[in-house]
TrEMBL record, chain A:
This is Molecular chaperone HscC. Belongs to the heat shock protein 70 family. It comes from Magnetospirillum sulfuroxidans. InterPro entries: ATPase_NBD, Heat_shock_70_CS, HSP70_peptide-bd_sf, Hsp_70_fam. It holds the Pfam family HSP70.
UniProtKB/TrEMBL annotation, chain B:
This is J domain-containing protein. It comes from Magnetospirillum sulfuroxidans. The chain crosses the membrane at residues 268-288, 309-330, 350-380, 387-406, 426-445, 457-476. The lineage of its organism: Bacteria, Pseudomonadati, Pseudomonadota, Alphaproteobacteria, Rhodospirillales. The keyword RNA-binding does not apply. Keywords: Membrane, Transmembrane, Transmembrane helix. The keyword Cell cycle does not apply. Residues 69-100 are annotated as: Disordered.
Length: 566, 479
């Protein structure tokens, strides 16, 4: 069975193809969104999802989140006394999703289509594949998130050719893609984005507003207070998407502060953040050489796009209402599942071809004659422009500058600035030049070849001697070797996930524990009493009784959602 | 790769419309998928793109509206830079561009430039008229022309806002503007100057990294940033007024002067500092060479030139300005020619000179002072400034020769010869003439691009100058 997985920064989802189309699978708590958080319980067992998310604030040292950001790097995260690679943490999330699928269908999934951001590099993609291997599943293919979103909307089912703009505002990243679909071809025209813009920034903004109103200084707050504050404001943010006015209790420094904020004020304060989304959209449009009226459909996905101001901005930019009838945080998961469906029906597989683009500009450093005849050194000369369809191969001819030059150094850069100083150096190639009279007589042909996996090969040929120097640039500083994967696989297999049937109880307990820490006085006592009562129910080992108690406990805890939004 | 007839590759009989090309491409694509057959795909893709472009030409329906939207030259002429808003009798209405949706881009550009920076930033974000990509593309070109035509008329803040809004720091946009015959390198220089000026105004602590960044680009800003690190801009400006601009132009060239003007300073100051350094160096030579030099103390020497503090000041700024002239003059050689051999060569030469000085030092302690200080000065020039111009090289060579002669004079063996040389009046004349000639030669070299290309890498540029000097000196001898 092939399943679809959206491995998000904040949430992950898994789906299966059914006769009625793609269907997302609920986890043990009955929710389709599983927070991408991994933690260690007090007894050393692993927690994934909601329970770990609750403990993110009470046990920051035992919990890890947002590790997708470190995929493809050699950074390790520390949980308790164990070090984890981002791949391993992702693997644990995938494993928990697989358990959910198994509980749901009774069958074990063997293959998956996993969605990754369009801007993910070769290293990041490989790391995602490795994460799947560590979770014991084969990756049938990786699909770009915007492409998945387009599939979820069934845009590939249209008869005529049509062009789409997909906007994805997630927890920490913002992505834009311009796609065209025709005759079973999904062609990505351009991708752009901002890797440091997402739903979290809006929470930061609310925190700033609140602290300014309460005349508090962020730097003097205790770490615990900050966590509680962010947690409450996250809820405020979500509610502001629906309600015009919200009042919330913020417990800071042992005192409870009441804070009011209106949607209007939030929107005004968030204008600069929303504004930052405009540049990538315009860049993608410009790169795709399309104007707004040439776009047939605008699709908005990502949890943070639930904020009306985001949709409004995109709407005004394109003069129409974006498609939004799917749940924005589920669209990508559904699309990945739809892709998995296409993969398993072999006939359909033959039909769809997806072509992708290179998200960055690649080129070399040169010296250029300026408009006033002066020489400008450090000028970036692109060979492969961003949003070129890949695989691509491009060449250009360069000549040395000096008559008695003996060596030519080609420095290879990636970036969007006309000056190499602001771009990223990928590598350098040195060519020895034979003696010559005029620079024009010593042309060097430089060829860049960029493949579907994001691998760049540079070839420099000295035309006179036909001597070719080659260099392959691989940006994968932190990839696991095959043996390393094998070793970690056994190590991970030894780690036990918390039993699935207990996860719902555990999530409740961790939530009650968090509330206990947040509250003071009477409320605190009440939470404690109920928690003890619930624990003793659990000891009874009677499933019916436990279910009953869990139901009541959950209802009881829900009252606090009203007083202080969680 | 055969691209003569792209329709073959696509499996078409001949040219078709865009729809037909797409259909053919889609069919072919199934047999050469990008992930399985990279070469086949590359070929197909190229054929597809060519065929598409051809079809676009045919039906005149552009797929690239951005390139067509901005008309080349002609009506995109920069409007005259806006003067400060004319005082009107009526209270002006709060002005939004939204109401001017249908106006032509020229007027829009004018109106934007007339706004205060804060209002401009707001307009660029809020005015729906500017949200349309086509309008923005055209505006970008017009505004870029305006800024280039009269850089001084647009405040650095405005320039920064425009650059951010219109992506003037993006390769793709720069290429688009270049296709419209807009000198993007000048635009870049203006952006940098604006950035620099803002940093100077704010006096932020991040000047050094900025300076480093700027150091890798362009002519003027890097040296200016360097100068800034040592001394304030005010200090530089104080020296300025006394120097006639034509001389500055002669010494530094238009490019640098334009930059100085951009950052709000006159180019003359650079020339002044350069001359000061020359004077100091020449003074050192004279000092070493003066018959009564053992009696002249360092203090006397400094006093002769002016207040010690002033001299230090001048020295520091001179080195900065020197660096500027050097970088400016020899910039093209800084890349992509490797620096390796010439630098080693130069260091070796310095080492030899130091050794010679040390040997001389064994005979007279005064020579130790002079020789070593000169050698160290030379070393500093060469290593710290990384490379040197013919002028500094020539002048320090002069100093070395002077010191060397002095040393020889102390040695009884050569005294008669040296005495004869030194007693000759033409020597001083020749020395001065040589220095002057070197300056002139260097200017010629800097101004003439062709000559510059012809010049061998930087180290050797010192040799001809020194050779000229020696020839003149010998010539003077002969008289
Ligand atoms: N109703 C809502 N209003 C505002 N923001 C929301 C809402 N629901 C979810 N979000 C935000 O969406 C983000 C998560 O989006 P998601 O697409 O799941 O991200 P990712 O793909 O990175 O995992 C979070 O920052 C969350 O706060
Ligand atoms: Mg996502």
């Amino acid at each position: 069975m092939i399943i679809g997985i959206d491995l998000g920064t904040t949430h992950s989802l898994a789906g299966i193809m059914t006769d009625q189309g793609p269907r997302l699978v609920a986890n043990a708590l009955g929710e389709v969104l599983t927070p991408s958080v991994v933690g260690l319980a007090d007894d050393g067992a692993l927690l994934v999802g909601a329970a770990a998310h609750e403990r993110l604030h009470t046990h920051p040292r035992l919990t890890a989140a947002a590790f997708k950001r470190y995929m493809g790097s050699d950074r390790e995260l520390i949980l308790g006394n164990r070090r984890f690679r981002p791949e391993e943490l992702s693997a644990l999330v995938i494993r928990s999703l697989l358990d959910d699928v198994q509980a749901h269908t009774g069958a074990k999934a063997t293959e998956a289509v996993i969605s990754v951001p369009a801007y993910f590099s070769d290293a990041q993609r490989k790391a995602t594949r490795n994460a799947a291997t560590l979770a014991g599943i084969r990756v049938e293919r990786l699909i770009n998130e915007p492409t998945a979103a387009a599939l979820a909307y069934g845009l590939d089912q249209r008869d005529a050719e049509s062009r789409f703009l997909v906007v994805d505002l997630g927890g920490g990243t913002f992505d834009v893609s311009v796609l065209e679909l025709f005759d079973g071809v999904v062609e990505v025209h351009a991708s752009a984005g901002d890797n440091f813009l997402g739903g979290e920034d809006f929470v930061d903004l609310l925190a700033e507003l609140a602290l300014a109103d309460l005349k508090l200084d962020a730097s003097t707050l205790a770490g615990g207070d900050v966590a509680v504050l962010r947690n409450r404001l996250e809820t405020v943010k979500k509610r502001l998407s629906r309600e015009p006015d919200i009042e919330v209790d913020l417990p800071i420094d042992g005192a409870s502060h009441c804070w009011r904020v209106s949607q209007e004020r939030f929107i005004a304060a968030a204008a600069p953040l929303v504004e930052r989304m405009r540049a990538p959209i315009q860049r993608a449009m410009r790169d795709a050489r399309l104007s707004a009226d040439q776009i047939d459909e605008v699709v908005v996905v990502g949890g943070a796009s639930r904020m009306p101001m985001v949709v409004r901005m995109v709407g005004t930019l394109f003069g129409r209402l974006p498609l939004r009838h799917l749940n924005p945080d589920e669209a990508i998961g559904l699309g990945a599942t739809a892709m998995a469906g296409l993969k398993s029906r072999h006939a359909a597989l033959e039909e769809t071809v997806i072509t992708d683009v290179c998200p960055y500009t690649l080129g070399v450093e040169t010296v250029m004659a300026g408009s006033d005849g002066n020489w400008l050194s450090g000028t970036f000369q692109p060979l492969i422009e961003r949003n070129t369809t890949i695989p691509a191969s491009r060449e250009q001819t360069f000549v040395p500058l000096q008559r008695d030059q003996k060596e030519l150094e080609l420095r290879i850069f990636q970036g969007e600035s006309p000056r190499v100083a602001n771009n990223i150096l990928l590598g350098a190639l040195k060519l020895q030049l034979p003696p010559f009279d005029e620079p024009q007589q010593m042309p060097v042909v430089v060829r860049f070849t960029y493949d579907v996996n994001g691998l760049l090969e540079v070839e420099a040929t000295l035309v006179v001697s036909q001597n070719t120097t080659r260099m392959v640039i691989e940006q994968n500083p932190g990839l696991l070797s095959a043996e390393e994967i094998e070793r970690r696989l056994t190590a991970l297999a030894a780690l036990k996930l918390h039993p699935r049937e207990q996860q719902a109880n555990l999530a409740l307990i961790t939530r009650a524990e968090r509330l206990y820490e947040e509250f003071l006085g009477e409320d605190r006592q009440a939470v404690m009493t109920c928690l003890v009562a619930f624990r003793s129910e659990l000891e009874s080992q009677d499933n019916d009784r436990i279910r009953h108690a869990r139901h009541h406990f959950a209802q009881w805890l829900a009252q606090f959602d009203q007083v202080a939004p969680l | 790769m055969s691209v003569d007839f792209p329709w073959n590759e696509l499996g078409m009989d001949g040219p078709g419309d865009r729809r037909a090309i797409k259909r053919a491409y889609a069919v072919r694509l199934k047999s050469c998928r990008p992930e399985d057959d990279a070469e086949g795909f590359a070929r197909l893709r190229q054929a597809y793109e060519i065929a598409q472009a051809w079809a676009t030409d045919q039906d005149g329906q552009p797929i690239a509206p951005v390139f067509v939207a901005a008309s080349p030259e002609g009506d995109d002429r920069p409007p005259a830079p806006p003067a400060s808003p004319a005082p009107s009798e009526m209270e002006p209405e709060p002005w939004t561009l939204a109401r001017r949706d249908n106006d032509d881009p020229q007027a829009l550009a004018q109106a934007l430039l007339a706004l205060e920076p804060a209002a401009l930033a707001r307009e660029l974000v809020e005015s729906p008229a500017l949200w349309k990509l086509e309008v923005k593309d055209r505006l970008s070109a017009i505004l870029a022309r305006c800024v280039i035509a009269a850089p001084g008329a647009v405040s650095s803040e405005t320039v920064a806002i425009l650059a951010a809004s219109f992506h003037w720091d993006d390769v793709a946009e720069c290429r688009r503007l270049a296709q419209l015959h807009i000198p993007v390198d000048v635009l870049q220089q203006i952006l940098q100057a604006a950035q620099l000026r803002r940093v100077v105004d704010e006096g932020g602590p991040d000047v050094p990294p900025l300076a480093q960044n700027l150091l890798r680009w362009g002519a003027g800003p890097k040296a200016w940033a360097y100068a800034l690190r040592w001394k304030g801009a005010a200090n530089v400006a104080a020296y300025l007024s006394q120097f006639p601009p034509p001389v500055a132009r002669l010494v530094f060239g238009d490019n640098v002067i334009r930059f100085w003007n951009l950052v709000g300073c006159d180019g003359g100051v650079l020339a002044l500092h350069m001359l000061r350094l020359n004077l100091i160096l020449l003074g050192l030579v004279l000092w070493v060479r003066s018959p009564g030099y053992p009696e002249v103390s360092m203090g006397d020497f400094l006093r002769a030139l002016g207040a010690p503090a002033k001299i230090m000041n001048a020295l520091i700024l001179s080195i900065a300005s020197f660096k500027l002239s050097v970088i400016y003059g020899f910039q093209p050689i800084s890349q992509p020619v490797p620096l390796g051999w010439s630098r080693r060569w130069r260091l070796a030469a310095i080492a030899v000179l130091i050794a010679v000085m040390a040997v001389m030092a064994a005979f007279t302690p005064l020579i130790v002072l002079t020789g070593l200080s000169l050698a160290i000065a030379g070393l500093v020039c060469v290593t710290m400034l990384k490379f040197t111009s013919s002028l500094i090289w020539g002048v320090s060579t002069l100093a070395f020769i002077g010191a060397g002669l002095r040393g020889l004079q102390e040695l009884s063996l050569f005294r008669p010869v040296v005495e004869r040389i030194l007693s000759f009046d033409g020597f001083w004349f020749g020395l001065m003439l040589a220095a002057l000639l070197m300056v002139v030669a260097e200017m010629v070299v800097r101004e003439a691009d062709a000559v510059l290309r012809w010049l061998p890498p930087r180290m050797s540029s010192g040799i001809p100058a020194t050779a000229v000097l020696l020839v003149i000196w010998l010539f003077a001898q002969w008289f």
